[in-house]
Amino acid sequence: MENRTFEIPIGPVHPALKEQIRFTFQVEGERIVGVDIKPGFAHRGIEFMGMHRNLIQVLYLAERICGICSISHPIALIQAVENAAGIEVPPRAQYIRVIVAELERIHSHLLWAGVAAHELGFDTLLHLTWKVREKVLDILEELTGNRVNYAIPIYGGVRRDISPEQYPRVREMIRYYRGLFEELCDRFLNDASVEARTRDVGVLEPEEAEELCAVGPTARASGLRKDVRQDWPYLVYGDLGVKAITPEDYGLETRGDVYDRIVVRLLEVGQSLSIIERCLEEMPEGEITSIPKIPALLAQLKKAEGEGIGRHEAPRGEVIHYVRLEAGVEAPVVWKVKAPTYSNLLSWYPMFEDQEIADIPIVTASIDPCICCLDRVHIVRGRSEQVMWKEELLKLSWEKTRKIVMGNG
Questions:
Q1: Beta bridge partners of 356
Q2: Considering only 98-102, 149-153, 327-331, 384-388, which range has the smallest mean pLDDT?
Q3: Which residues contact 298 (CB under 8 A, 6 or more apart)?
Q4: Phi then psi dihedrals of residue 354, to 5 deg
Q5: Domain boundaries, the chain
Q6: How far is Cα 362 from Cα 45, in angstroms, rounded to an integer?
Q7: Average of per-residue pLDDT values in the chain
Q8: Does domain 54-339 have CATH number 1.10.645.10?
Q9: Cα angle: 82, vertex 85, 90; to 5 degrees
Q10: Is the peptide bond before 12 cis (omega within 30 degrees of 0)?
Q11: Which of 255, 289, 307, 360 is the most buried (most CB within 10 A)?
């Protein structure tokens, strides 16, 4: 009997998706034989808005590119601006940035683990994981004042110091998670139902990961020891000797499947605990910012001229921010952001190949996608696709506004 191929559309709105994206799967029976992926439903124009605000205001926009990575984007932006403006950062401030970044990695990986359990239909494990995640959110609130959107880094340093009274509470959190670490590994890695749903599912071979420029846990789970903290040390990561983690560090043969992505993220929770502990022990005394007054900072930024690039190993992978500054202009002349999901998007194609329909939710979740972070405008008119530049988009916006005002929209 001849095989018949059917199309299954999923999204842009679907119960298995947390954000808007559209998949069109070609299936033969239960087997996926092809997929077409269409982002472009959640573009927010953040870069455009940033180029019409001063650099302090841009920092608040950067925090809101992603709620989970709400220090990752500011760190990358700040490094880019500091490079362009020649601003120095005190050593103590660098340690504080690293501590908050690693706290964010713990909370992000635990959040992802809960989402992964939910996509497998294992909601008991979801609730356990999110229950223990509360501890790291409490510490983030203790140190920064917020559970998300921490507003801790600023050009030239950080806004808040870590007081001696807060050290014991951070150390207590480290002991708490170390006490839970074996249990979390056991629940995720030794459970028969989790293994059955994730072993040899959504495989990304090392060659495919390298060719498709995968980053973060997605790349490391395929055996690529690729980590910005290791390959391009910034802040004090070079002094801490951070090494990229792969499944081999857990004594496993790397398969590049969903199971291996669970392994890498769990091991990175343990690694982040060790990094935070070392930072507490080695953090020097001193100032937390090189330019304490905001008016003086704005004045220096307004005089700055040049280009800068900032890179940061976010929980999902490498974040890159590029800025170009011109003297006398408060706003960046150019601000471009590359989020890790933008790099990992193409990895879905080989991951979905030959999988079953029931595997779609967990394979989708396995790269920890953030669609709003990656999204760009995508315009389709009839059967033709086109790229629209700023001037054309502005013209279309003005025309639409006029029609609405005149009652013809």
A1: 31
A2: 384-388
A3: 54, 55, 56, 330
A4: 65, 15
A5: 54-339
A6: 29
A7: 91
A8: yes
A9: 45
A10: yes
A11: 360
Q: Is 327 exposed, middle or buried (0-12, 13-18, 19+ CB in 10 A)?
A: exposed
Tokens of 352: 């979905």
Residues 225 and 248 sit within 8 Å (Cβ to Cβ): no
3-state DSSP assignment of residue 347 = helix
DSSP annotation string for 244-271:
---GGGGT-----SHHHHHHHHHHHHHH
- Per the CB < 8 A criterion, the answer to whether 152 and 159 are in contact is yes
Which DSSP helix (H) or strand (E) runs through 38?
A: strand 31-38
Predicted local confidence at residue 206, as pLDDT? 96
What is the identity of the amino acid at 129? T
Q: How far apart are CA 298 and CA 295, in angstroms?
A: 5
Q: Do residues 369 and 19 touch, judged by C-beta distance below 8 A? A: yes
- Tokens representing 194? 């989790």
Partner residues linked to 311 by β-bridges: 320
Q: In terms of DSSP H, where are the helices of 38-166? A: 46-50, 55-63, 72-85, 91-119, 123-144
Q: In which band, very low, low, confident or very high, does the pLDDT at 378 lie, cut at 50, 70 and 90?
A: low
Q: Does the CA dihedral 17-361-211-7 come out positive or negative?
A: negative
Q: What is the pLDDT of residues 219-231, one digit of tens each?
A: 999 999 999 999 9
Tokens representing 204? 């990304």
38-91 pLDDT per residue, tens: 888 887 888 888 999 999 999 999 999 988 888 999 999 999 999 999 999 999
